[in-house]
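Changelog excerpt

This revision adds worked examples to the README so contributors can see how folded entries look when concatenated. The first example is reproduced verbatim below.
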Amino acid sequence: MTTSGTAGWNPGTVSIVNGALRLIGAIASGETPPDNEFQDALDALNGLIKAWQVSGVHVWTQTEATVFLQPGQARYAIGVAGTDHASETYAATRSSAGAAAGAAVLPVVSAAGLTVGDTIGVALDDGAVFWSAIASVAGSSVTLTGALPSQASAGAQVVAYAAPFARPLRVIGARAVTLATGAETPLIPMSRLDYANLSGKTVPNGPPAQYFYDPQLGSGVLSLFPAPSNGLTAVTFTCQRPLQDVANAANTADVPQEWVSALRFALAVELAPEYDCPAPRFEMLKAMAAEKFAVVQKWDVEGEGTTSSAFAQPVYQIIAGALRLCGGCAPQNLPTWGQVENARYSLNAVIQGWQANGIHVWTQTEMTQALTVGQAQYTVASPRPLRVVGMRLVSASGTETPLIPMSRLDYANLSGKTVQGVPVQFFYDPQVDSGIISLYPAPADATATVHFTAQRQLLGVQTLNDDLDFPPEWLDALRLTLAWRLSAEYGTPPEIAQALKVQADEALAVVQRWDVEAQGTTTYPFGQPLYQMIAGALRLCGAVGPQDVPRLGLVENAFTALNAMVQAWQASGIHVWAEEDVTVFLQPGQIRYLLGGATTDNAAATAGTGLTWLAATAAAGASGVTLADAAGIAAGSTLGVWLDAGTVFWTSVTAVAGAVLSLGAPLPSQASGGAMAASYAAALVRPLRMPAGRRLVLAAQGAQPIEVPLVPMSRIDYANLPNKATPGTVTQFFYDPQLGSGVLNVWPAPSDARCALRFTAQRPLTTFAGLDSAPDFPDEWLAALRWNLAAELWPEYNGSARPGGNPGQYALLKQEAAAKLLTAQGWDREPQSVLFGAGMGPAGRSG
């Protein structure tokens, strides 16, 4: 018996794909699949290979690369599209003679390894490294495509490389290399926040001693500390490269021989739902695939890894694959345009809903906010951060000091929010359209800035040509999840729908275990129109077919149900984005104030109120006043003037001329110069809840107002007070959210008008006025809205008069709707207050 003497068997893609199709019974032995089915299987194979990268750092994908440094540069983009310089191999030499500024010919000690077209770097006398390309090599003289910008003396370090290094998936270790001697010094790895909290990141104090690698999309970013002081040191790192794509039938998979069998069986399991593989065979294949994968994984035992290689599977391919998986179209057919468009809206809903699952590594970014003296709050709208993970104050000299985060109530109960000093604390409020950064104390130095680590938005898919804002290892989970979401629309058999759900959950769990940084959410403007949300809900509940356009009557009925559901959801808790600070102005002796509706009492959102003073005395009967500052006041505003008699007179503003205001009614008595005046543009809408309040002591001109927390009372507490009209300083309150107008009861009765009350209130959620209305919800709630509206409508279209209704399908629909609502509610939870404790309810408060 003789052996072959060879051990290089590694079958091509055709053998793997055909073998998988035979395993599931799609083709028989000797048959070949049609071209479109082969291409579909090839796409699935690519997705499978990319997803496998998250299972660990594969031994055969580890390699070495070197990044070349510049003085004072701390961050280096590594990737084919990167502007910095990194390569797997390079040649090093020295200049044999000096070269003056403007020279394009460089004499070198040895030209070995230098090739025309290579990228070449020359260390200049000023410490920088000049990069160009090699135009020609003649003996030991190298001609550059660009002239030297300054002198390079004899003995200057010279390096060259042929091709840039692809973006690493993970950097396992790094060493600083002295190019002249080859001496290597290991670097210490850092976490993201370790690096973010370093002060003086760009101060050139090298050589580097620490590093942090951030696997962003396109190019990875290697950050070094301290920044190098010259270009004579490089950093060589051990990393995991991406698994290569399978572009066509002629390619072999980028896996060793021992992985081929596991790959074939795993591809069979991946394709089985598309071809209605019988359940017993599917379960057998799944068990065999898992066993084979476990065997080879035990051999491939190095540390965990991930991938973000440019697999570039188009959006259309993901959608078409999902439609085939759920039975929306046959394996050999192309989906219709209507199916693709409907699935694209569902894909966007999946993407936006996933943002509530946690802060994704590749979406974290650094942002900067300039400061203004005395300004405590700053609006960040473009791009609006979803969550701020950490914040530092950066002085003009570059010194960075971490700030302490606060909860909403911690900040609300601070007295003197505009007191100036060096900021030491911050609160970030992610409102619907823009975020608000609140600093305390307000900055006294405009030369400082704040730098913060934030989670950016995941981008939606507007056209089929868009790139997905996901690394390739997420594509398999995205395709399977989309297929599960579409299964309700296309009436997928329950056993296949359940199998899709299991596979989608498994794929998502695998990539989520890699994406392990702190929790996050999103409110990026997904912009799904209200009509599309309603149409999607009608398809989910079976009121219309997947390819049908819902008629106006169905849309109108669903529109009414949606508004009723939004109003009912208000009782589920105080929603973060619906909280606002409100101010109620007091009158001496008045204990009850009507808020909202047709009321004569005076209250408004604090952001829309202004406090100023009279610049001159206004006599009784005066129809106008002169203010010290009329900024923000316009005709139609409501104005309150503190009279010498001790009351506040409220009227409308009919005209504004500089600082002179014309009043809608004359003053009933005199108001001296220096008397306070308050204004607001719009009256307060009836609050749903007012869980916390403060007494605002209005200070004299030029002084800071003082805020003192109030004690809330229950209805019985207030009812049992023996003398509600007792005059004094207000210390307690009870808010009664009656119909029309809410009733605010205060105790004791205010003895003077030089105090106002400020409350953290929950405003009503705005209902939809028409199909062009924007939802009064952040985007992470849109998936919950759509699925819960479908569950709300299901009984209307699948009751006793519709025997086609499937109770099992309704149970799955209801289960998914509840899960979406719980996910959104889990995000709608504020940080625990260091002053008030954990609290209860979706907004993190006790009653």
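The second example, added in the same revision:
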Amino acid sequence: MLVSRRTFLKIGTAGVGVMITGSGQLARAAGTQSLITRVSAACQRLAPQGWQQLLLEATDGQLNIGSTNLKDELTKPLQIDRTVPGFGDFNLSAKRAIEPGFPDRSLLYHAFASPAVVAGRNGLQLKSFPTLAEIEAVLNYVYGVNPPTMDILRRRAAGRPLGIVAFALQYEDGPDSVHGTHAELCFARAGIARLGNIEPFYDSRSRSFLSLDPARPFDFRVMPRQFAPYLAIQMSGSDVEREQFGPQDALKSVDGDLKFWVPIHKLFDGRECLAGLDLDVTLERGLRNDALAMFHKWLMVQGLMNNWSGDDLENYPFLIKDESIGSLSQKSDYGAGLLIPRPQPLTSEARYKGQLLTFPVDGSYTEDSENIQLSSLQVLPAPPSGLPRYGIKDAAQDSQRPAPGFTNIRHRVLPGGHVQNLNDQPKLKEIIKEGGYNTLHYTDGAGDGWIEAKCSQLTGLVDANIPAYCMVGLPDFFPKVKQRDLMLWWNQDVPKPIRDALWAIPPLALSQTRIAANITLPIGFSINDVTVTAMITQPDRTTSPGSAIKARAGAVQTPNGPLRRGKTGMPDGAAGVFDPGWETSQGIYFSSPSEQTPLQKFLAGYALGSPFIEDAKLCAALGAYWPGVAPDSTRVFQPDKQISGNVYPYPTIAPLTDQEIGSAPLPNGQFMPWDGVRGPDLKFRVISGQRHAVYTDAWRTDYIDLAGTMTAALTSQIDLAEYKARILAMEAVYWGLGIHDTEFKDGVDLTATEKILSVKAKWAVLSFRNAVESDKDAIVAAAASSAASWQVNGPKLYFFHVYRWEGKEFTDPSDMRKVLVKVVEEATAYVSGTDILIKREGQPWKLDTSMPM
């Protein structure tokens, strides 16, 4: 009998100790210079590059960053003109270039840190932009120009705990800030870096790192994440002044009972940080990827065949850690606290003691089809037999992930060390079911860990030292689309009649998920500390009691420069649902053996796929059930995915175009599918008078074999408006086919949502693309034959070719890596907004406007 999740967790979390590895000095060499000297150097470099003129324009000629007396210049009162491009969302209460202790109210910091500040009033572009180190110099000066004493900070804490806390931080424009009213420096005790195979590139104009190199479309840049140490106070979510610090998108029914660490003063080296003290501040990082170790512990606990245990599991590659995953940068232009993942291949063969590292595939486990998802070994619990789950049952947030959720078992290692790719074996399914072979382990550079600040001079003067949680997650195929933006759109703008069944579960952002950091890490995160991913900001101590709510309800400032709409490595850009996840996954903790004890959740990187691209394949191929901003490749593969032994069709929700999935070439004739897998043939194959759609077999598709062919060159161009338009267009097609959400009700076995998704899944998308000029005549003719005066309703016009299928697919007799699916009925459609011109087989064109607006 398989061991329960509670029993496993007792073993899996036993013996967790404390270990700190990897450190980064906070620019001590620069500490010999005064703060104003560093700020002056930055101003002198940038002044002749257009910055002097820009800041004179923004202050009616009052702020001259070329002044010989820069210190007085920066602290004098100013008249600020927010009509100058880039300053529209600069805090209305601000009146100085440097406001001691408050970055949001410091004009120079806004100018340096905001990606909206790129040109003057006359449109003349700035010729150069600040480095990360120069932005950090100004930030440190904001806190150091009038340094407080520890007694002053204690009084500000007003009896609340005061601690050294590490934060991920990002200066966000008004729409993306915590309060949404003006640009703010935003904080979270969790941050996301992303792995890649080439070095990072900082684009100073956009004040961000870029994930792609246009000259190398099949490579991914590593994406760093910045952290910084602060003195912080622990505030209650029920405080009268809670609205001063956030959290962003507060959970009113939950947050009132929680505690949030809120920054009040930045820590840095030297005598100018805290009056009367000469600080020596360091950041230390610890990173771990113990996926293989956890997998072998799971094999042991379940009583399955296992060839590695004990001390071996503490060695590489069972346990990958620290510099093998990432390090704090020592590059002077990057400043302090920048975590940079190590550039490396997306996946590699695992080796141990000079040999390929393998594990035995136990047939007693794989013979049960519930333990196989497509052709991957599945650790996640299977759904109830015979019922579709559509993400509701398998993504339930109380599901344990004791080891990598999915593990590749398709590369058999034969005696002598030869690796046999089972995807090429005609009896792949039978081989997996029988088991009894050694399969190859793979490694990747993903992981999770911590960033901790140390300062010996503050020993005994603070109540706690709280590390940040850091994740090194998968590459991002949609860098312009934040998960939070999708969540807010779904919650606020999507019509209620279609909202509940648009996805099976809500598209939550990680920033709105109250969950602990990985408690199995040796740094000692607490299971009761569940606000690590909350987005907050520094409280404004000048606001009088009771006035914060009123102030925040005031005018929303409108940015008037370029907006950086996309992910920055903060939790608002990451998914807050886990099955197993994209940036991280989750584990379950219990405080007693009683089954009645409430389970508590924590983030856990080890529960992602092994290797991570095994998980990427499954999450993308089953796009409807997992509402993360990730590729929806549902239509790339055959409609019935046959998972865990069940009929398992999924509908397309956020379609990728024919070019993005490689069903159609680019204008230059090149095919560039995002994952290297060519989508279905755009023409049906007719066999004995019966039409069939032709697909690459999902069971024989292995992203390990395709790692060098993955690309975000096309998907990275999709912004939020395009992403939303595609989702609504797909939904309009379903309504045009007569699938109306409002007509479904909850039943005994299936909810209304499950029923809707099940009916949608009977239709597969063969072709999806933007309508082009050559479609014009067809559209005119279709509109005329429908006797409808149809006009394009919105900026987007899409073409769909869909079909209804039935029965099981069968292997293409001429190519075992292809499958054929029987076509029962087809339909074509043009969609603009929520209006659709649709022609079902055997019927005339008609205009359908049934989908709610």
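Reviewer comment on example two: The CA atoms of residues 403 and 607 lie 5 Å apart. Residues 1-29, 391-396, 542-553 have pLDDT under 50 and may be disordered.
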